[in-house]
Amino acid sequence: QVQLVESGGDLVQVGGSLRLSCVASGGTSSRFGMNWFRQAPGKRREFVAAINSDGGSQLVADSVKGRFTISRDSANAGDTVYLQMSNLKPEDTAVYYCDANGLWGQGTQVTVSS
Predict the structure, then answer these.
(1) CA–CA separation, 86 vs 79, rounded Å?
(2) CA 8 to CA 57: how far, in whole Å?
(3) How confident is the model at residue 77 (pLDDT cuts 50, 70, 90)?
(4) Where residue 29 falls among pLDDT bands split at 50, 70, 90?
(5) Distance CA 87, CA 33 (A)
(6) Rounded CA Rg of the chain
(7) Is the model's pLDDT at 54 over the cut of 90?
(8) Distances from the Cα of 46 to the Cα of 2, 40, 42, 92, 106, angstroms
(9) How far is CA 63 from CA 1, 55, 77, 87, 92, in A?
């Protein structure tokens, strides 16, 4: 059973940067595409970015295009997906979740202060 653990969330100021990590372990996660979603208080969970199984294809939501990039490192024993976030805005404040084939991590909180 694949397990996902997100990390890297923090409190940052407007315009700042963060890199989120999602470590997949315990299974063959490298066969799956992986995704980042986020959920702000009182709002529905929304798609942020996706990357395919070999990391060669990426997709980001229009709301973060040009500011967020997704990447993947499956070279070592583990499988880690990153979300590099720059020029952060208050509306990026949310809990960020990693998803692989319908499995979810516990999330990591990102708070952007103005």
Answers:
(1) 23
(2) 23
(3) low
(4) low
(5) 26
(6) 13
(7) no
(8) 22, 9, 12, 11, 16
(9) 32, 21, 33, 12, 9
Of the candidate ranges 1-5, 79-83, 106-110, the one whose mean pLDDT is the lowest: 1-5
Size of the chain in residues: 114
Query: What would the DSSP string read from start to end of 68-90?
Result: EEEEEE-SSSSEEEEEEE-S--G
Closest-CA residue to 102 (of 40, 20, 27, 10): 27
Q: Tokens representing 108?
A: 């990591």
Q: Check residue 69 and give its pLDDT.
A: 98
Has residue 98 got a pLDDT over 70?
yes
Report the alpha-carbon distance of residue 32 to residue 109 in Å, rounded: 24
